[in-house]
Amino acid sequence: MRSRFLLAAVCFVTGVHATDKPIRIGVMPGEEASVVAQVREVAVKQGLPLEIVTFDDAARIDAALASGAIDAASAEDEASLIAHSTRQRYAIQSVAATVTLPMALYSRKLTSMASLPRGASIAIPSDAAGTARALILLQNYTLITLDDRAGLHPALADISSNRLDLKIRRVERAKLYDALDTAGIVAMNADYAARHALKPGRDSIGIEDARSPYQHVLAVRTSDTKSAWVAQLIRAYHSDDVAHFIFTQYQDSVRRPW
């Protein structure tokens, strides 16, 4: 049967990991995979061999982790991880923060958030998860206030205050870039912005905090959380070398929440 994931890189060295087998870590292509490649370099020097496994579909990573096809994953935020693992009854959990791929606010009409006029049009993703993330970002900039009861899942109906009478409209993700021609501000996820050569740290006028609730996490099987290799992997990920790589390579377009 054809494998559903593609091997990106393998590195074998003798080290302190008890089995001398590489720890297999699943990622999606892009910035996160590049960061994990740096993690691998640090981990190998510390005696922990890593194998990076690149998936073509993020939905398959949790299943691969739960089944034992991989040992760790760096691919999604904790809320998504919990939702998927609860729904599928996977015994997996997060053990550390990894990176934040920030949603950001873009504009062709404005140069800063301070110049946002009353009644401006704001385009946000129309899917429920994208809508919630965008509304939380707008609240972080004090443009709106959300009902506390909505938590991390607010909808337009949960807006309790809109001090500038902003016209917030939901737009299909595929049409968000085109909305820059008409909207005062457009909220876009990092992956979609990248398809149009937009970098959050360079091109946006507003950006998610590094310690956003949507920061990605390192996940392992629940039975492995106390394993020595997990602590080694976290130390490698949170090393100065990886922090330096993230800053120099991506500036604020990839953010470090640790």
What does this entry show, briefly?
By secondary structure, the protein is of the alpha/beta class. The chain has helices at about 30-45, 60-65, 80-90, 130-140, 190-195, 200-205, 230-235, 240-250; strands at about 5-10, 25, 50-55, 70-75, 90-95, 105, 120-125, 145, 160, 165-170, 185-190, 205, 215-220. It starts with a strand and ends in an 8-residue tail after the last helix.
Can you characterise this structure?
The protein is an alpha/beta fold and 258 residues long. The protein folds into 2 domains: 5-101 and 212-253, 3-Layer(aba) Sandwich (D-Maltodextrin-Binding Protein, domain 2); 104-207, Periplasmic binding protein-like II (D-Maltodextrin-Binding Protein, domain 2), CATH 3.40.190.10. It contains 8 helices and 13 strands. The strands form 3 sheets. Strands 1-3-2-4-13-5 form a 6-stranded mixed β-sheet, with helices on both faces. Strands 10-7-11-6-12 form a 5-stranded mixed β-sheet. The chain has a two-stranded antiparallel ribbon with strand order 8-9.
